[in-house]
Amino acid sequence: MSATSDAAVLAFALRFGDNALVLGQRLSEWTGHGPIVEEDLALTNVALDLVGHARMWLGYAGEVEGRGRDANQLAYFRDQGEYRNVLLVERPNGNYADTTARQFLFDVWHLHVLQALGASRDERMAAIASKAAREAAYHVRRSGDWVLRLGDGTETSRVRMQAAIDDAWPYTGELFAPDAVDDELLGRGIGCDLQSLYVPWNEHVSRVLSDATLVRPQDGWMHAGGKQGRHTEALGYLLAEMQAVARAVPAERW
């Protein structure tokens, strides 16, 4: 399809761009504060990968929107209610187990959904997803390794990793909850069946948690609303820091 005005495609591209942008910003907060030098560098590299993904998705969103806004303008000059990321990625970093749990649960979903979108009838979307999936595969291995290290490490690290998984779990339901945008694009062969991704995601996550001597939480009530622009106050603080310089000198490019 051509990059013409399409509300559903625009919303979909914004969701993936915002997921990557917000999580990349969160991970960048660890730069210089990682537990070891190698991990400090690894986290920064993952953050850069995600910002690269955001640039591709938001660039496409700007073209579809047709209002002359590019990736930079969409990143730095929208307000909190205009962001469409899932709530999981905006959660504060907390301790290192909290960051690891958030990253791992997102990474496994992210890889599966990108692989599914590689078959999209929207050629541009398929190309972005296929390119991003190659980096996401590394992200899954890395975050899974840290779940294993912390879960099957010391008693203190196991307790913290279990608590982090328990705290992040109620934010995972939104990943698999389709709305009208998802349903429309699935019917057009552009999007993917989010609900069908739950089984492979759950199998992967459950296997790693078991190997890490951790208990998979029970499914229950789940947080939602990020995809529709309803966010926690944590996103407001993140955006205030991320957008401060760009908004102070809006004529420059960032």
Describe this structure in words.
The protein is mainly alpha-helical and 254 residues long. It has helices at 7-28, 37-65, 71-76, 87-90, 96-117, 123-151, 155-168, 180-187, 198-211, 233-248. α5 runs antiparallel to α6 (123-151). The longest helix has 29 residues, at 37-65. It is globular. The mean pLDDT is 95.
Name its key features.
mainly alpha, 65% helix, globular, 254 residues
Write the layout of secondary structure elements.
Layout (H helix, E strand, L loop, with lengths): L6 H22 L8 H29 L5 H6 L10 H4 L5 H22 L5 H29 L3 H14 L11 H8 L10 H14 L21 H16 L6
Helix pairs in contact: 1-2, 1-8, 2-6, 5-6, 5-7, 5-9, 6-7
What's a concise summary of this model?
The protein has helices spanning 7-28, 37-65, 71-76, 87-90, 96-117, 123-151, 155-168, 180-187, 198-211, 233-248.
Uncertain spans: none
**Strand content of the residues, in percent?**
under 5%
The whole-number mean of residue pLDDT values reads: 95
What would you call the quaternary organization?
A: single chain
Structural class: mainly alpha
Number of helices: 10
First-last Cα distance: 29 Å
Order of helices and strands: HHHHHHHHHH
Helix content: 55-70%
